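Hi C.,

You asked whether I'd gotten around to modeling the 463-residue construct. I have! Everything is below, sequence then structure, no commentary in between.
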Amino acid sequence: MAAPQSRTFLARLPLPERNFVADALRTETAGGILLLVAALAALVMANTPLSDFYQDVRDFEFGPEALHLHLSVGSWATDGLLTIFFFVAGIELKRELVSGELRDPRAAALPVVAAACGMVVPAVFYAVVNLGGGGSLAGWAVPTATDIAFALAVLAVLGTSLPAALRAFLLTLAVVDDLFAILIIAVFFTTTIDFVALGLSVVGLALFWFLHRRGVRGWYVYVPLALVVWALMHASGVHATVAGVAMGLMLRCTVREGEERSPAERIEHLVRPLSAGLAVPLFALFAAGVVVSGEAIGDVFTTPEPLGVVLGLVLGKTVGVFGGSWLAARFTKAELNKDLAWADVLAVAALAGIGFTVALLIGELAFPDDPVLTDEVKAAVLVGSLIAAIVAGVLLKLRDRVYRRLFEEEERDEDQDGIPDIYELDNPEYHLRMAAILEEKAAEHRRLAEQAADGSTNRDGPA
């Protein structure tokens, strides 16, 4: 039996994949900055004389009671706005499965194993701390998720130009994380189910799929249908964000004759800015407002539940993602990109410990009857994410010179045709264009040298 063919881990991305990742991460980075601003605003309001106003707004309820939608502003942000976030996550997952890193099972093994280990190991850290300290195991899922927007915001603040392969690896980790997170929410945080409402929601999803497959277009068809599906899912007792993921997975990611872009790509291009720029920051505004004091910070490191969250994010994520990557590479015979080192994987693993949005959501779901413990767990998410960001920042800065060199090589476009030169090295036409450009530059240098020589002769010659 032939030995498995060696592959490259964190290899250079194909050009279409590289362009998609660049566009997606550009939007997520801008959204991440807004997310940081929203989180800071929430902390300021919760810890100043504005705290009463903040709590009144967050707890204000509105909506039709008959439809089970008489919710607080905070709940609307959690159950409503985050559905948009998970809708985009569903599209990302579908695209990864159809044309991205997850389409090839052998290639998908690395990021999937890394992401899975990056969720299991933090849960183990949390469980060990709480079993030993007499805490509750209900929050085991809190430190399992990675927040891609927050992580990219940290990269933007640090000014670190990660190579496309590392950014794509981080994005794929986050996509798989989101899938596992929504499964965790659906399976472990659904207590009672209204099967009638759930069945009607499934019927609505089937209608959504049928209309999409038949080529029906128009937001005026899908937006009302999506709202009905979401409301029925919410009424069923299953977390409403599941509806968002389901609809995202139903979108077609392949391009048909006469189309420039697939429906999934077109819709994602429209919805991603809404998710990154509005939905997630508003969720953070109403979820991150916890009281921060010396006593509260002390509780984070002395109470087993929040301590388990911090250790899960900082140590569990790092050990899980790095260890999973190394094991997957070892057993799939994948060789690390020669331009990178395992220290780079360690830095990305530490960056994956930034678990803001989904971690806050699961924290709210894990302790619904204990608001004090919920706030402590939220504070732990903030503290753990901050520590992970600092650790990752230090590791990334140590390799910043390497990253900048690789980034500049990826972006260089000497012939200015819109395609980075590194993707054209095997193209004969590229070498002809480069030879022409070099010849033109050489001719310009000769002309300038001749002009300089003539000027020198005229100055030194007889009057």
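If it helps when you're writing up: Residues 421-458 form one domain.

Thanks,
B.
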